[in-house]
Amino acid sequence: MSVSAQSWITPAVARLRAANPYVVDTALAALVLFAASLQWMFPDDGDDRLTWQGFLLGAGTAVPLVWRRRSPFLAACGVSVFTPAMAVYHAPPPDVMYGGLVVLYTLAAIALPWQRRFMLVGWLAGVSLTMMHKEGAQPFEYAFQLLSCVSAYGFGMLSRLQRAYTAALEDRARRLERERAADTARAVARERARIARDMHDILAHAVSLMVVQAEAGPVVVRSDPERAETAFDAIAAAGRDAMNQLRRILGVLKDEPVNGTSARLPQPGVAALTDLVRQVAGSTGLRVELHATGEPRPLHPDTEVAAYRVVQEALTNTVKHACASLARVELDWTEDELTLTVTDDGRGPADHGGSVRGSGDGAGHGLIGIRERAAACGGTARTGPGPDGGFRVAVRLPVAADRQAALG
User: What is the pLDDT of residue 65?
Assistant: First the structure.
């Protein structure tokens, strides 16, 4: 079948399935009645023309089909009564039992097991008895009628299996989607909790600095006014920085430290990237290059940590998933922002479907964490294939407005 034919057949089938079942089944019943009447509308001889009694019997084999999907067994019973009556009245029997084939298909597709089995056995027996009523019936006629019944039943069973298979696939897709959404939500929650813990350390340092400066201010306000002014400026700067950080992480829930204590080490920043690159290269054998352009600018403390963690996560993904031989870490300093770019020459997203590296949409938990860290600092992150193959992580982070604002 050509693509153009499929383009209109598929929507037509979808519209037919979505249509009112009574309308569709009424049209089907009319078609069956017309087909059943053809044999007597155009007989081989003049003695077998259609009569009104024959038309009513033929209608009895078609009209119950209007309710074939609402009451399949009752519709089958009605057709089962009128089909042999029509065959006896119009000896010889009809060439094709259209109504019987439709109800056998319907029963096999949607009826209960005992109903469809009972009707299949009954129709096979009834066809055999009806054919015995026909004078001079040939063996191939018996075979044709019996195979017609079995084939209609078989197509109905295939339709049942196809619907069950489709329903199973749809249910599995829904479950996988729910699981994926749950995994993503858990990954986001874990990463936000980790960011909150990092921010807790930074804010604790800022508040401690404010307390120390505030306690020292009254002591030196008379003896050394310039030093007191510097202390108050530091308090104001620390307060503004703390407010900015609180606005960025508003809504992020923080896990409480165990026993109310925290044993965290000082957080690494951009200056620690050299040691990170050396550590990755020394422990994995991956050749890692670090390049910096532009003049370094002051960063907020949380941005320093984010820059380090972004590079760490990107190199970890490269080691775990890329099978790369070279990774490049580039720092591009401008007046307003720091652009971090980590590229490798390993497998790109198209060559590693379904992994944690994921694709540009960031299906992996590591990429989710990178974007969460960048967003918490007011930056952006993009991930995807590199310009020359491999994989690239590009993160833009804002720099501090002034050097005093970078102090924590």
Answer: 84
Distance (Å, rounded) from C-alpha 107 to C-alpha 319?
A: 59
CA angle 69, 70, 75 (to 5 degrees): 75
CA geometry: angle at 16 spanning 15 and 22, to 5°?
Answer: 125
DSSP 132-166: HHSTT--HHHHHHHHHHHHHHHHHHHHHHHHHHHH
Task: Please count the other Cβ atoms lying within 10 Å of the Cβ belonging to residue 45.
Answer: 6
Residues 6+ apart with CB under 8 A from 393: 310, 314, 317, 340, 341, 342, 343, 367, 370, 381, 382, 383
Element housing 238 (H / E):
helix 225-248
- Partners of 383 in the β-ladder: 393
Give the model confidence (pLDDT) of 197-221 as tens digits: 666 555 654 665 576 667 666 776 6
Scan for tokens 């770019």, then name that residue. 341
CA distance 151 to 168: 25
Record the tokens describing residue 393, joined without a space.
Answer: 């992580």
CA distances, 278 to each of 91, 285, 286, 289, 396 (Å): 96, 10, 10, 9, 23
pLDDT in tens, 310-348: 888 888 778 777 778 899 999 999 988 999 999 998 876
Average pLDDT over residues 119-135: 76
Parallel, antiparallel, or unpaired: how do β-strands 287-293 and 337-344 relate? unpaired
Signed CA dihedral, 230, 231, 237, 238: sign only: positive
User: CA 185 → CA 178, 189, 365, 369, 374, distances in Å?
Assistant: 10, 6, 10, 11, 17
What global pTM score does this model have?
0.46
Q: How far apart are CA 24 and CA 334, in angstroms?
A: 69
